[in-house]
From TrEMBL:
Pfam family, one: Adap_comp_sub
Entry protein name: MHD domain-containing protein
Chain positions covered by the region annotation Disordered: 477-502
Gene that this sequence comes from: NDAI0K01930
Biased composition (Acidic residues): 484-499
Coiled-coil positions: none
GO cellular component, one term: clathrin adaptor complex
InterPro entries: Adaptor_comp_med_subunit (IPR050431), AP2_Mu_C_sf (IPR036168), Clathrin_mu_CS (IPR018240), MHD (IPR028565)
Subcellular location: Cytoplasmic vesicle membrane
Taxonomic classification: Eukaryota, Fungi, Dikarya, Ascomycota, Saccharomycotina
Organism: Naumovozyma dairenensis (strain ATCC 10597 / BCRC 20456 / CBS 421 / NBRC 0211 / NRRL Y-12639)
UniProt domain MHD: residue ranges: 292-610
Length: 612
């Protein structure tokens, strides 16, 4: 950000103030980078300076000051402003959900002496003052850098996920990736822009071996010739070494490149083009089914009232994030055109790869940007576009998604069922689809809370939750105190319920309804249970006698109730927004036949239904 001052008489004062500001300004320098597994064991460390501390030294400081950072296994929401581990040192943490890896960056703040005020060349007294962002932007910069490095590693090895073994077996190449991404402790923007160029900058393992082997052989020849008194060894060595270096380390630099993200004269034997469209659902519903007084129940019908209508769900907040990944193995410099059917959804302002040729106006008013994408693809795997569908906006033109019916799986639940109103029921509606065969990894988390308006029972009472009937899957109970903190130490056990009503859940505040690996579409799973109250009540309801417990329950006073249901699942073949690829053509290509494929993946990562 630059501020212009046009008054000559203010130049000296401004210059004086700017020098004072410049003395107080600080520069953040990367001092060390570390990769850890989900259990916080060191996998890789990159120490660009001799002053960089090792992981063992740094971990001792973390354990003494921020022990909670090492206690979480497999994911933690890190502080955006980092962790202060020294006078001028801060640690920033990024967790890769895809690879289940932690990335740490240790930053040192130093005084820098760049001029923040200059007089213009013509001497007109026009002063340009730079406003520095300071430490406030360091968290965002480090998160972007670490996330970008994680993406670069995936694309360099052409993998969907990277393992710790892969990193340790390729320690040299991972070090070179960090070396090119960080220049003098600062992010190297030039190399971070085009990830696919790392394959040309950093040779593959076979190239490394050929360079090392030939170098060792040539060194041996030079030593032998010098020992025998020969004088031509040095020239021969330099020539062979330069030749190997040019053909391996610097391969592709002299190629005829028409765009900076793709090398010229690429030859692939595959001639394949794959498109992967992935969407993640993030929604929070309010369950509008209420337990009203005076509702009658059929004592002969153990199912009570059954409601499975999406109209009883109210969307409180929701959005769908989408990403379009491309794997391109094409010869030459082809031009690909992909046409999408967005189903009238507002895709917002998408984030596009630089290879996309923009024909529309990216000002937020042009809804046709995502309808047709024309691009010269980089070689290998890359992210073509990212978008977000805001479900809070009532878009009448959208036909691909209904704010009350998002995805193929809907969930509703109700409390206060049964003749004594101590039963609850969770119902799923897995819609049928000709494009989706089954739902994968379907799991529900049930949260029970204490109804404070009702009677209270002792914390050590033996209140139990009983499974009456379950049509699918199994129940996994997370033990702990009723209504307790989720961060407490938990212990899981499985209840294999056969619907005979003899299996009781332990006194707990959370259940997990876990389905099989694959659940057929078009099914209607149901979970029915009841809460068995103990006789140890501290509250006095109508005299506090046991005979009045049923009366209290009948007046809609229940100790514990199902308050929140969280659901996760995934399926292939269809997107939650309804978007689809309607055409994938090669406008310009020398290849006569290309194998093309499109895959759709929908994942419910944050799907929550809460009670009124």
């Amino acid at each position: 950000m630059y501020v212009l001052h046009n008054k000559k008489q203010c130049f000296k004062e401004i210059d004086k103030d700017s020098r004072k500001e410049h003395r107080e300004a600080r520069m953040s320098i990367g001092l060390g980078y570390y990769i850890l597994d989900s259990s916080h064991n060191l996998v890789f460390e990159y120490l660009p300076s001799g002053e960089s501390p090792s992981f063992d030294h740094l971990s001792k400081k973390i354990k003494s000051n921020y022990s909670e950072l090492l206690e979480h296994k497999g994911g933690v929401t890190a502080h955006a402003d980092g962790y202060k581990v020294g006078t001028n040192l801060k640690l920033y943490v990024y967790f890769s959900v895809t690879n289940r890896l932690y990335y740490w960056s240790l930053i040192e703040f130093k005084q820098h002496h760049d001029m923040t005020a200059k007089k213009d060349d013509e001497g007109k007294g026009e002063v340009k003052t730079r406003v520095n962002g300071g430490e406030n932007n360091d968290g965002m910069v480090q998160k972007y850098l670490l996330e970008k490095i994680d993406t670069i590693i995936l694309e360099y090895f052409d993998k969907d996920t990277i393992t710790t073994t892969k990193i340790m077996n390729n320690y040299d190449r991972i070090s070179l990736i960090f070396h090119n991404c960080v220049n003098g402790g600062l992010p190297n923007v030039d190399y971070l822009t085009y990830e696919n160029r790392f394959k040309d900058i950093i040779p593959m393992r076979t190239d490394f071996s050929s360079v090392f082997n030939s170098t060792a052989y040539n060194l041996q020849q030079v030593v032998t010739q010098q020992h025998l008194g020969g004088g031509g060894g040095s020239s021969s060595f330099n020539g062979r070494h330069d030749n190997n270096f040019n053909t391996t380390i610097r391969r592709g630099v002299d190629d005829d490149m028409i765009v900076p993200w793709r090398n010229g004269n690429i030859k692939n034997a595959k001639n394949e083009l794959y498109i992967d469209m992935k969407e993640d659902i993030h929604v929070n519903f309010r369950n509008q089914i209420k337990n009203r007084k005076g509702r009658t129940y059929d004592n002969n019908n153990s199912n009570g009232i059954r409601v499975n209508n999406p109209s009883c769900m109210k969307l409180m907040n929701g959005y769908i994030t989408g990403v379009i990944d491309v794997r391109s193995y094409l010869n030459g410099n082809p031009i690909v055109e992909m046409k999408l059917n967005t189903c009238g959804n507002d895709m917002g302002t998408p984030s596009l790869h630089p290879c996309v040729e923009l024909e529309g106006d990216m000002n937020g008013d042009d809804d046709k940007v995502m309808d047709s994408l024309k691009f010269i693809p980089p070689d290998g795997k890359f992210c073509l576009a990212r978008y977000c569908v805001d479900l809070n906006k009532n878009n009448k033109n959208a036909v691909g998604v209904n704010n009350r019916d998002i995805g193929l799986v809907n969930v509703t639940f109700e409390n206060g069922l049964g003749p004594q109103r101590d039963e609850f029921e969770v119902r799923l509606n897995i819609k049928g689809s000709t494009m989706v065969e089954h739902i994968e990894d379907l799991k529900l988390k049930l949260k029970f809370v204490l109804n404070h308006s009702a009677m209270s029972c002792e914390e050590d009472s033996s209140t139990k939750i009983k499974v009456l009937r379950t049509s699918h899957g199994r129940i996994s109970v997370v033990s702990g105190s009723m209504g307790g903190d989720e961060e407490e130490e938990e212990e899981e056990r499985d209840n294999d319920d056969n619907g005979d009503g003899n299996n009781y859940g332990c006194r707990t505040d959370r259940w997990e309804w876990i389905f099989d690996k694959e659940t057929a579409t078009g099914s209607l799973p149901v979970l029915r249970g009841c809460i068995e109250y103990s006789k140890e009540y501290t509250g006095n309801v109508n005299g506090g006698s046991d005979s009045n417990i049923g009366s209290a329950i009948g007046n809609n006073r229940v100790d514990f109730e199902l308050a929140t249901v969280s659901m996760t699942y995934s399926y292939l073949g269809q997107l939650a927004s309804g978007c689809r690829v309607i055409a994938l053509d090669l406008v310009k290509s020398n290849v006569a036949r290309v194998f093309k494929g499109v895959k759709y993946i929908t994942r419910a990562t944050e799907y929550t239904v809460e009670t009124c």
